[in-house]
Structure formats: C-alpha cells, structure tokens
What we know:
The chain is mainly alpha-helical. It has 11 helices and no strands.
Amino acid sequence: MDWLQTIVLAVIQGLTEFLPVSSSAHLILPAQMLGWEDQGLAFDVAVHIGTLFAVMWYYRRSLGAMAGGALGGLRTRQLNPDLRLALLIGWATLPAVIVGFLGKDLISEHTRSVAVIASSTLVFGVLLWVADVVGRRELTVMGVGLGIATLIGLAQALALIPGTSRSGVTITAALLLGLRREDAANFSFLMSIPVILGAIVLMSTDLAQAEQIFTLMQLLVACVISGVVAYLTIAFFIAMVTRLGMLPFVIYRLALGLLLVLFFL
C-alpha cells in the first residue's frame, strides 16, 4: 500500500473515532472511489493504538483522579466520587464487550454492507438531533448513576453495527438521559478508553494470521498521525459542542448517508 492511503486512512480514523459521524462510513468512500483494498488488521491496530493514546492523554487528569480514587477507596474501604466514576465507566463498558465477543463473527459477516452503513448513518443521525433537542441538559458526569450508566452502556453495544458511530450513539443516549452536552461528550470519550483497548486486544489475537500490506514504518506513521488528529479532534469537539450543539454533525451525517445511498446503492 502506498503512502497516500496510509496518511488518508490515518487522518480519517483520527477524525472520526470521536466525532459522532461514523468512521466506517468514511472509510468506505476513499476505498470505493480510489479502488483501495481493505487496510487489514495491522493497520487497524496501529491507528487504534494512536487514538487510545490520544484520549488517554487528553483525559490524563481525570484518569489520574480515578486511579487516586481507586487507591483511596482500597485504603479507606469507602466509595469516593472518583472511584465511583471509574466503576460506572467499567460497568457501562460491559455490554459492548459481551456483544462484541459473542457476536464478532455474526456482525462482520452480516452488517458490513453499504446498505447497512448508509441506513445506520441516517437513522442514528436523526436520533442524535432528537436527543439534542429534547434532552434536559442538567446532569454532569459526576451526576451519572448506575441506571444511566447501564443505559448508555447498552446503547454503546449498538455501535458494533457499522455506520452507527460509537461516540454518536453514546452521546445520543447521554443527552436523552439528561446530561449536558459537554458532559455527555466527556462521559462518552472516557467510556471509549476500555472499548478501544478491548478492540486492540481482540484484533491482535488474529494479527498473526492476517496478511501484512503495510510496512512497519507506515504503521508507525499511521499510529502517530491518528493519535495527533484524534487529540485535536477531541479538543475541537469539546470546545465547539457547548456553543453549537449537535446540529452541524446531524446535517453532515444526513448528507453523508444520502451520498452513500446515491452513489453506492
């Protein structure tokens, strides 16, 4: 594979991993228009490692507070707010882990079509708009309870359907359940850390048997590019979402979904 594909796909992954616009929908367009073959598991692992480092660095203070809360909780045998948040994020991750582990083959065989991706892009784009309009926007991240975390976690499991967008569906659920826009995004991005880590582990189990079509240097560059772009994207989204809301991303999703329908179906 050439360097153009390396750079373009790494930028797309970094941009779309955290924006509520669906990375799978975007990866179809350059592949179809330029005739690129599938990028393969090694590339997927590399760019996911980049985005994992990006989100962990952006939320390093929150992660440090949760680690400190966990140590403090073990020492005092009491549940403090930071430990509680860490446990809720872990709990909310379980549905996606279970569904991903049990349904990996079913999902990969029956949901990778352009029709599924286009439909999911459109339907969940409309749901994101509805959630942004009707959501109460009262709760902060620290106001999330077990029930809300469970429902957001169940919504996250839907992101295994290509075109849904993991960040999009979790932010949609969080808004419907009353979180403020910025807090919905923050909770969604914190939830992404164990999910991305789990995806890396899951993909790595099949890596030895996968065909390698990128050089090691290309994989390293892709990792760095996806990480830098992902970090800038998180910062941009958090700064923008409180002022403009979700409407720009809803419009973009609808346009993208219609583009997929018109050109590839």
